[in-house]
Please model this.
Amino acid sequence: MVEIGRNRIARQTFGFDDVALVPGAVTLDPDIVDLSNDIAGIKLDLPIVASAMDAVVDVHSSATLSDLGGLAVLHLEGIHCRYDDVTPVLERIASASAEDAISVIREAYQQPVKDELIVQRIDELREKGAKVAVSPTPITAAHVADVIGAGKVDALVVQSTVTTAQHISSRYQSPDFKGLADMVQAPVFVGNCVSYQAALDLMRAGADGIFVGVGPGAACTTRRVLGIGVPQVTAAVDCAAARDDFLRETGKRVPIILDGGMRTGGDISKAIAAGADAVMIGSPLAAAEEAPGRGYHWGMATSAAGLPRGTRIYVGIAGPMEQILLGPARRDDGTMNLFGALRLSMACCGARTILDMQKTEIIVAPALTSEGKDVQRAQGVGGTR
Model:
């Protein structure tokens, strides 16, 4: 705790660049490290969930990630469920000037969501043999669950900028998470939150998984526009504490998925060590050849009519999704072979499993990435640009 002024104390918090992991007294051969995890009954060979963002996930990219062992979430209120053919829409967004991008995106999202397209996209995913996860916002969750019906999805992801179990509104009732799970006969994941109490309340309200993170994504401007958020390492630790307390309270382990702010394998390693059971990633996957964004990425709230809380960013095309996740890397900055890096980090920390990695010692070390790197910084290599 630090004093920020007379009679006002603030808690110090930490993000990825503030901390480091301490290598273990016992190390492992990377080949015996197991990256798989069970997320509310969904077996993932890689602990990755692709963000429910239109530049990241469509039917094709979702099927590709499923084949690689991860899980993609299709945004049911995005353009893929508004247009039969999204190709011209995506091309307009990608070709818009920086000055016009927000207005072009806003116009594209004026088309209403079509229930028949929700059903069609889910059927297309099932035909490809992909794991099917889809995301509505809390205000539409009950209607969407009714449209989907039972047994059609592997997970329903109810997401908004901040979701709580005690939302007060004159427009709609807070979702009944247990009721939604009964309607679709699948686990219901809920997000986003960043605090111990909010996470614990969501678990007690019936959430089968929790997404953690407010505003850290590369295309998100929520932290600047609204001034809210908690750095991701502290958010993960606090919400993981809620998970562990809820497990002791009920015997049910509700997985924590850290959402946003991770660019490198080192960031992902720190996320798992801080307590995450999996990570949700957007911009690194938007740079995959299979992604629908054509080298661009934009936030879910970019199209908001009155107060956009996202922007369009250029991420380029880094390579195939498999290369970004599993290598071989063509860059020296940690942004490719993300899960090869996680595997090696776990091996160095003596962690055979994800649960083992959550016990790794974390230290406050803001100088870790800059110490001794003057030459790299001068030459603009190694991710020091």
Q: What stands out?
A: The chain has one domain: 45-324.
